[in-house]
Batch of 2 targets.
Target 1
Amino acid sequence: MTPTRTGPADSLTDVSGVLVGHHHRLDENATLGSGSATGCTVVLVPGGATAGVDVRGGGPGTRETDLLDPSHSVQQVNAVLLTGGSAYGLAAADGVMRWLEEHGHGIAMGAPGQVVPIVPGAVIFDLPVGDWTVRPTGDFGFLAAEDAARDFATGTVGAGVGARAGAIKGGVGTAGVVIADGPAEGVTVSALMVANPVGSVFDPRTGLPWGVGSDGAESFGLRRPDTAELAAANVVAAKGTVLNTTIGVVATDAVLTKASCRRVAVAGHDGLARAIRPAHSPLDGDTIFALATGTHAQATTIEVPAAFPADLPVLDAVCAAAARVVERAIVTAILEATSVAGIPSYRELFPSAFL
């Protein structure tokens, strides 16, 4: 297992050059069918980042994912949109593009100011939470980009406002590590996830989130909850859900190619499958983007046979870390979410689980 240590802020923005912003509308009295409860989250890389994507769910809603094919011409993106609103929510990407254009970020195509920003995106299905007709627009995307910073909120914010994870409240979570040894020593790998899966996020036998397995429950400040709380939570879980899809971004400061970014996105799904059961269902649109800013000039003394990519030793370590940070980010999303529209949070169901 690749040795790592927790990043400075345990956050996606531990990777230099990456910013995160949210915008949402949330009414205190929102219900399943009325009021406002939706939003979007923008991962901003104004300086550009090499990118890849892996779509595993059977019901995805995405934008510009074909462009990320390693064989295609455009090499970098300027932002990634994660949004509620199902396919309607993709309109928020227009506002992100508008913000980037106004600030001169994008592919330079001619005279000064003539740029084409590249903004891939993915959606979650949260329309039944709140009024079906209230969903992110271009203005949401613009305001989320305007809000982008290194410090950002998690839980019931942005694209996670209307999220539901199985029977309980979902949300936005983040995690970050620094690789502590080997050819990728000093490289940062981090993730931001929006948890809204069909599958369950906690073990019905113990009440603990599935994703605590790699690091242990104590590292999240958790212990096994009381049996009475577990029994009540399993009754709630049996009622099921109509919401679906977990989406997110893995970022690293390593120097990687587009093809290698795709492998990082693939590895991120391993972490998703550890934290959600079942994962990648026909109803989910599970999608993970990977970004490499290249701001860490890693050095490796390992010789790589000519038949393999030159960045293989670093890539191997980054992929292992990617799975871990995705898993931890999903747990964080669940633990920090608060109730909306009567959807109970993990903390409400399992108060005794917190140390």
Target 2
Amino acid sequence: MDNGRLSLPPLPDEALKRERLEHMKRLATGLLGLATLVFILARVFESRYPWLGYVRATAEAAMVGAVADWFAVTALFRYPLGLKIPHTAIIPTRKERIGRSLGSFVQNNFLAPPVITAKLRSADIARKLAQWLADPQHGDTVGRHASAAVTGIVQVLRDDEVQEIIQESLSSRVRETQVAPLMGNVLSLVTAENRHQELLDSAIRLFDRLFEENRDALRERISQETPWWMPGAVDDQIYRKIARGIENTLVEVSGNPDHPLRHRFNEAVAEFVERLKSSPQMIARGEELKEEILHHPAVRQYSASLWADMKASVLRHGADPESEFRRRVGAAATRLGASLAEDQELLDKVNGWAEQALLYVVEQYRGEVADLIETTVAAWDPDDTTRKIELQIGRDLQYIRINGTLVGGLVGLLIYTITQLFGG
């Protein structure tokens, strides 16, 4: 870019195009020179050989046609002979107008909704896509690209940002739900149909086992708590009374579904469940405990480990050509293609969706495309643009000069002949 102007990239075969252009220029100019030489010779010897009048008229008209077409072709790219004649050097001086016209032409003729619609309907994108996906090799290709895309996304993402997102997501979801009422609802389900009595039975069995395992400790504790002067037989009697009472109580509660202790347990559980659901104090306390847990370092460590494990799994499966992820995506794509190809109604729907989507995009951005073409052409360097365009189409334009020379000569011959036949 020079002085705010964009230089066009070099043409892939620029040297060859320049050589061919120069060759055609020499050929067209050579015909003009030949016509000029023939005109001069015919003019010199016309008085001696009158029939040379036909040759002279032909050469004269050929010269006029060649010069006129040379002027027309040259005026497209530069000022003829360096003279700033109006309406010449059209491409470098009217480049902005050309860009604006080109953008408008593309917008109104290539990006017009009827054109896009007709092209899409003739293309039958859905059927071609279905046939392509139905090929197992293409399904494998889809799986490979999907795996590569997921792997690339995972590698681009910053670990600390993803961990923060995971933590914030978990925290926000947890904060949206009050803990105490939720626990109350869970306990309501647990206590339905007296299922919580199973918890009491488990607690009784646990207490019984603990009691059996700690009988000696209980006996020792009773001895320590009674006065020193009390006989050991009394301590033994106290121990046996306590142990027998505990054993009897455990047996009675365990074997009697209607035991008062079970009723009191039911009442206590029901009261606790209700308090969890409706007590402001319990709800507030639950929220305090929830916030303490959310701010605990273990939660951050959990979110970090969650992302680390997920990332490692994705990278491992993405690097494995035989990974389950690739196989599943490929098989799913193949099944989708086969199913789609057999369902004409679905094919029509997919074509309709593609048409609507593309028309929406085109409608939204067709103006931007025209502006892009206009601003891009306007930013091109005029001399560089002229040179590149001339290399692309200049060779064909030289045929205009050649044809002008030949056609001009024929017209001149025809006019001279008619004049000789009917003029005198």
